[in-house]
Every structure is written in C-alpha cells, then in structure tokens.
Amino acid sequence: NKGKYEHYMQKEIHEQPESLTTTMRGRLIRGDSSKAKSVLLGGLKDHLKTIRRSRRIVFIGCGTSYNAALAARPILEELSGIPVSMEIASDLLDRQAPIYREDTAVFVSQSGETADTLLALQYALENGALCVGITNTVGSAIARHTHCGVHINAGCEIGVASTKAYTSQIAVMAMMALVIGDDTISSQARRNAIIDGLVDLPNKVREVLKLDQEMKNLAKLLIAEQSLLVFGRGYNYATALEGALKVKEVALMHSEGILAGEMKHGPLALVDENLPIVVIATRDGCFSKQQSVIQQLHARKGRLIVMCSKGDASSVCPSESCRVIEVPQVEDCLQPVINVIPLQAMLIDFNDPMPFDELVVVFLTYKSYVT
Ligand code: UD1
Ligand code: F6R
C-alpha cells in the first residue's frame, strides 16, 4: 500500500527513518556510564573469531548493493585493520579471480536472489571462503546458502530503484565493522561516537528529508541537461557512484560518479560552463582536499552544485552562481546515509507512477531474478 505517496520509490525514500530504526532494533546496546556501548549481530556472533582471523574481507555485490559496501569499506578497514577488497559479482566471475580459504567473502544483496551474486557465492563456496550474507530477504537463496549473515530488516522494497535498502545496508555494515573491530581502549571513543551516531541517525534522516522540495526544484533545472557529473571521495565516493546510478536509472540521463582524487587524470577535460557538476564536500578528513577540487572546477567555469555540512555554505562556495545543498552533519562514516538522500529525493518526479500501480508483481519478479 502506497498510502499518501504517488509511487513506491517516493514512499520508500520517506520511510527511511523507520526502516533504519528497524534495521538497528535490538542490535545496539547502550551502556550506562560504567559500561561501554556495544553492538550485537546475532547472525555473526558464532563466526567472529573466524572473520577476525581472515587474511582479507572481500565485498561482493552488484549495483546499489556494491555501492553500499563501498561506502562501508573505510570504516571496516579502520576498525578491523583487515584489508578489504571490492568485487562486482560479474567481474569476479569474468576474471575467475583468486578467492582463498583464508578469505571472508561478504555477499551484499537486497533481494538475496541476484543471479551474478549467487553465482559468485557458489564460486566462493567452492574455493573454501567463509561466506557471509547481508540481505533484506529472509529465506532468499543468498540467506540460505551463506554460512552466516545479517538480515537488514528494512522491510519489503518494491520500487525498482533501491533506496531504503541502500541506507540500511550501510547501517548494517557499519555495525559489522564495530563487531569485527577490536574493542580496544584506544578505539573506545570512536566506537561510542559511531554507536551514538547510529542511534541518532533516523532523526538526522528526518531532518535531511525536509530538503525534498528544494531537491525537486533543482531537478527541474537539471532535467533538460545532457549529463550530470557527481564528484566524491573517501566515505562519499560511494555516494557519487550511487547518485549517478540513480540518475541513470530513474531520470534516464547520462551521469557519472567520479572519484575526486582522479579529477586531474582525465575528467577535468570535460568541465566547462555547460556541464552541471555535483560536488560532495561534507565535513570529514577529506574536506580541505574537496575545497581545492571545488576551486579547480570553478577555475574551469564548472556549473557547481555543492553538498556541504550545515553552516559551511560560505566556506565551500567560490561564487554566487554556485548552488548549495546543506545537510546535517553526522559521524563521518555514517555521512553517506545522509548524503544519498537528497540525490534520491531529486529523482522523485522523474518516476512515472503508472507502471508501479499495474505491474507490481512483474517488477517484484524482475527485481528478484534479473541482473
Ligand atoms: C534473529 C531473528 C529475529 C529475532 C532475533 C532475536 C530471524 C530471521 N531473525 O535475528 O526474528 O528477533 O533473532 O534474537 O529469525 N543469515 C545467513 N545469511 C544471511 C542472513 C542471515 O546465514 O544472508 C543467518 C544468520 O547467520 C542467522 C540467521 O540467518 O543465523 C538470522 O539472521 P538475523 O535475522 O540477522 O539474526 P538476528 O538479528 O539475530
Ligand atoms: C539500483 C538497483 C540495482 C540493484 C542490483 C542488485 O537502484 O536496484 O542496481 O542494486 O540489481 O540487486 P540486489 O541488491 O537485489 O542484489
């Protein structure tokens, strides 16, 4: 039931405060002053020793699920100290890339049925890796065939373009980083800040959803364009890829997510006064580097739309012509959950409601079985 919403994607975008709440329900333990805060993922607890001993963690997925894993990669590396590599399922299979018994392979899939991801799971099982699933669908093939895993519990996702599953996947993988990482004294403050950030995340999502109308207005300006570039780095490289994927899929417009650190090595040649460019420059360890990227894009007369933390508009905008999207600031590793939402909301009016009314069953089947 779509309730007051015109179509499922819109409903699911607005549902994210609630879907994130159910994702975290029963999993965050808030300690009192004498006790540290902690995280419990029932599906992983018997396998944590094996995961911590693994030589490498490999994230495997397709599309939006791959992007969610990419967003979580830095925090998993930071807290676990284990090398984390990324594989798009079809590419892993095309290369028949090495997977070892000492690897933990993490399969990320909303439906739990995506053919390429399932084939990659088969391949990793044959190669003896510990296989962990992160899926939204209880009883799905990936949930059944992995050794262990975590259900993201975001609720059924009907819209073809994945939205609430993406944010819940990131929340689960941040929690996974917390349970895998050592609970050392030196990491305590950081861990507590992330747990507090998770607890408060639904409120911050509610806040960023208020940009809905502003994003629709921006979309009206962009609709006639040929292309849109999205620059991100660090935690928000994934946001750039995911924003661009959504623009392609929903607005049927060319868009490219670009790693800002690669700007000088090719993409800068594209920049002129016509091409709109979104730059994600919220506060984190990469902020000053993003400021200098903005300066360089401005010097090339790029048409800039900058996403920044609340209150930062004047420190990121090189000129009056630059548009700003100000979002609430959260703990750096959770910022991708917030930053993707205006990009999702921008696309709401591009979505034709009719097919969703009539073809829900077809879409559900499509979403589950076609890659
Ligand atoms: C489980 C219950 C939940 C209950 C909670 C109370 C289920 C599905 N979940 O949640 O209803 O409220 O205990 O303690 O019954 N798994 C995989 N692969 C995957 C995903 C999950 O093997 O891709 C496995 C997990 O290792 C685990 C089981 O499925 O054995 C359930 O996972 P999950 O729902 O995440 O566990 P809990 O959060 O503990
Ligand atoms: C994009 C989208 C797809 C899926 C991809 C993987 O909005 O929905 O890119 O993310 O097909 O699907 P799952 O997560 O079900 O394995």
Automatic annotation (TrEMBL):
It catalyses: D-fructose 6-phosphate + L-glutamine = D-glucosamine 6-phosphate + L-glutamate. Signal peptide: none annotated. Its EC number is 2.6.1.16. Keywords: Aminotransferase, Glutamine amidotransferase, Repeat, Transferase. The keyword Lyase does not apply. GO terms for biological process: fructose 6-phosphate metabolic process; protein N-linked glycosylation; UDP-N-acetylglucosamine metabolic process. Pathway: Nucleotide-sugar biosynthesis; UDP-N-acetyl-alpha-D-glucosamine biosynthesis; alpha-D-glucosamine 6-phosphate from D-fructose 6-phosphate: step 1/1. It is an enzyme of class 2 (transferase). GO terms for molecular function: carbohydrate derivative binding; glutamine-fructose-6-phosphate transaminase (isomerizing) activity. Residues 47-186, 218-361 form the SIS domain. This is glutamine--fructose-6-phosphate transaminase (isomerizing). The chain holds residues 324 to 694 of 726 of the full protein.
